[in-house]
Design a protein that fits this description.
CATH superfamily of the largest domain: Iron/manganese superoxide dismutase, C-terminal domain
Number of strands: 3
Number of domains: 2
Largest sheet: 3 strands, antiparallel
Strand order of the largest sheet: 2-1-3
CATH topology of the largest domain: minor pseudopilin epsh fold
Strand content: 5-15%
CATH class of the largest domain: Alpha Beta
Order of helices and strands: HHHHHEEEHHH
Radius of gyration: 17 Å
CATH architecture of the largest domain: 3-Layer(bab) Sandwich
Helix content: 40-55%
Length: about 210
């Protein structure tokens, strides 16, 4: 079974002026598609063929050693991008409400404090990687970052273990055409794109396990 790249829930130019249409098209149709194709290739003909990609990366110890790195890299890239597209939207920005807002305030003190901590995690991730807001097994929220295409789902591999509900791609291909080396500017602009309703739904789902 080939892993398919989901269609974007908005047009390539829908996130302008914060993320340009050319970047979105290349990012989705080239980079994300390559991760999907390479993950499909890695598991083809094995007992893992057709298994849910989230389940694959969440239990890398069960993946044969000869394809483990490929599944880690390409499976991570596939799953991470799926979440990335889902938590953005053309009418995003602002702050969350309801239970998620309360959980953020409880954990970080305020939304502004959370935003500062998350932005710092994204800005200080050396090289390529991701910043995350996740729900730990103890029910608390946490902010962390990961290198390359690693995910907090990767038990025993990830620098932090959690169920991701929000993520920001800080690979250069996500922003270089518009922002060049100005990653902090990209991070600041991205806050205008967060679909907090989608993030809240993922938070509720994570709470239910």
């Amino acid at each position: 079974m080939a892993y398919e790249v989901p269609d974007l829930p908005y047009a390539f130019d829908a996130l302008e002026p914060y993320i340009d249409a050319q970047t979105m098209e290349i990012h989705h149709d080239k980079h994300h598609a390559a991760y999907a194709a390479n993950l499909s290739k890695a598991v083809a003909g094995t007992e893992l063929d057709g298994k849910c990609a989230v389940e694959l990366i969440a239990d890398l110890s069960a993946v044969p050693e000869n394809i483990r790195n490929a599944v880690r890299n390409h499976g991570g890239g596939y799953v991470n991008h799926n979440l990335f597209w889902e938590i953005m939207g053309p009418n995003g920005g602002g702050e969350p409400s309801g239970d998620l807002s309360e959980a953020i305030a409880t954990t970080f003190g305020s939304f502004d404090a959370f935003r500062e901590q998350f932005s710092n995690a994204a800005a200080t991730r050396f090289g390529s990687g991701w910043a995350w807001l996740g729900l730990r097994d103890d029910g608390a929220l946490c902010v962390c970052s990961s290198p390359n295409q690693d995910s907090p789902l990767m038990t025993g591999v990830a620098e932090c273990s959690a169920r991701p509900i929000l993520t920001l791609d800080v690979w250069e291909h996500a922003y270089y055409l518009k922002y060049q080396n100005r990653r902090p500017d990209y991070i600041a602009a991205w806050w205008n794109l967060i679909n907090w309703e989608a993030v809240a739904a993922k938070y509720e789902a994570a709470l239910k396990g």
